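Saturday, quiet lab. Running sequence design on the structure tokens for the scaffold JK sent over.
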């Protein structure tokens, strides 16, 4: 029986992934459930398991090459089974919609670069197998046509995490009308909690956000065609910067977890994110995202919504400022929270009420059982 190994869909918005490393060679015996290939998705490096036992008969997508979701990247058969790969190869290499009737053998990265610079791929000579055009071939053509431009020191392929993150954020900014509001928050009490328990400030904000989302369910939703879908689960993602790009591990049911439990989970997922070992379950299913740039000395910023969510919270650094308290000026530690929201789903007033709820929970230390 012929079994196709396909590029998995690891999130609602994922369109393609990159084949990282094949753990098996053509002709090797594989067992169902055994990791056979590393796939770089939009948020993590994921080990794809064999869907059946047998022989890895044909590898159709090589390491470092992109493939669209559900594209066949390899074929598994039983030993000595007659197999013709013509149909499967034709299916895998078929040009995607919008690429025209004329077939040009080129990598997805080369096609994207050609579109960006207006390069006709039919005029480019490919250096890959069977004349396949790669990104370097397109760059060489661009350089030949633009010899008067500054010399390029290095070309960093936009692939893996960075490529998908760029695509998602570009789509978010084009399709979702962003609006951002900001509030200063007195963090005196959570600083004491941080000193006493050593839980991170991000953890404390995750807890405050999760509880506030329960009271303001519209912030915990998504726009699907002409319908607003309000999520029952409160799954808070936290953006983590890694050497391979931005990833967003998700704390599921954060509203039902104690602060220490959230902190332990965040520490574990952050370590796995830096190692590129987050599982599919740990990077999918988010309903709201937090991004913290306070540790870099940033006071405030306007974050871009992580699609398909309705909002995202930006967290600035803690600074001491004079505040009026009971008619007296006192020096207090404050941080600025920046809430960007999709104006198609949420209006300014309910967004402000939500952010005020978050502010109140942080300043009054509401529901912070450890």
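Result came back. Writing it out in full:
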């Amino acid at each position: 029986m012929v079994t196709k190994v396909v590029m998995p869909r690891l999130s609602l918005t994922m369109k393609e992934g990159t084949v990282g490393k094949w753990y098996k060679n053509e002709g090797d015996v594989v067992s169902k459930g055994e990791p056979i290939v590393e796939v770089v998705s939009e948020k993590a490096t994921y080990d794809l398991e064999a869907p059946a036992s047998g022989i890895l008969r044909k590898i159709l997508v090589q390491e470092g090459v992109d493939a669209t979701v559900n594209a066949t990247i390899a074929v598994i058969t039983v030993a000595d089974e007659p197999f013709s790969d013509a149909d499967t190869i034709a299916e895998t290499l078929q040009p995607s919609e919008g690429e025209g009737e004329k077939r040009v053998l080129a990598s997805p990265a080369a096609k994207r670069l050609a579109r960006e610079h207006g390069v006709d791929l039919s005029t480019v000579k490919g250096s890959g197998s069977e004349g396949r055009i790669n990104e370097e071939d397109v760059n060489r053509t661009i350089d030949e046509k633009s010899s008067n431009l500054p010399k390029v020191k290095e070309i960093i392929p936009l692939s893996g995490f960075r490529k998908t993150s760029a695509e998602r954020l570009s789509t978010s900014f084009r399709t979702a009308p962003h609006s951002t509001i900001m509030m200063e928050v007195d963090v005196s009490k959570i600083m004491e909690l941080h000193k006493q328990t050593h839980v991170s400030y991000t953890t404390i904000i995750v807890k405050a956000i999760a509880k506030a989302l329960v009271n303001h369910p519209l912030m915990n939703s998504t726009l699907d065609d002409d319908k607003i879908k309000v999520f029952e689960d409160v799954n808070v993602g936290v953006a983590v910067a890694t050497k391979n790009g931005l990833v967003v591990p998700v704390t599921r049911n954060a509203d039902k977890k104690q602060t220490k439990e959230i902190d332990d989970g965040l520490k574990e997922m952050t370590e796995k994110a830096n190692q590129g070992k987050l599982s599919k379950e740990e990077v999918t299913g988010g309903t709201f995202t937090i991004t913290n740039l306070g540790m870099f000395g940033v006071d405030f910023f306007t974050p871009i919504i992580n699609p398909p969510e309705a909002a995202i919270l930006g967290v600035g650094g803690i600074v001491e400022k004079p505040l009026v308290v009971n008619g007296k000026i006192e020096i207090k530690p404050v941080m600025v929270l920046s809430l960007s929201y999709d104006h198609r789903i949420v209006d300014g007033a309910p967004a402000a009420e939500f952010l005020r709820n978050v502010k109140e929970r942080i300043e009054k230390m509401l529901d912070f059982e450890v």
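Notes for JK: The chain has nine helices and 19 strands. Confidence is low (pLDDT under 50) at residues 93-102. Ask whether to fix the surface positions before the next round.
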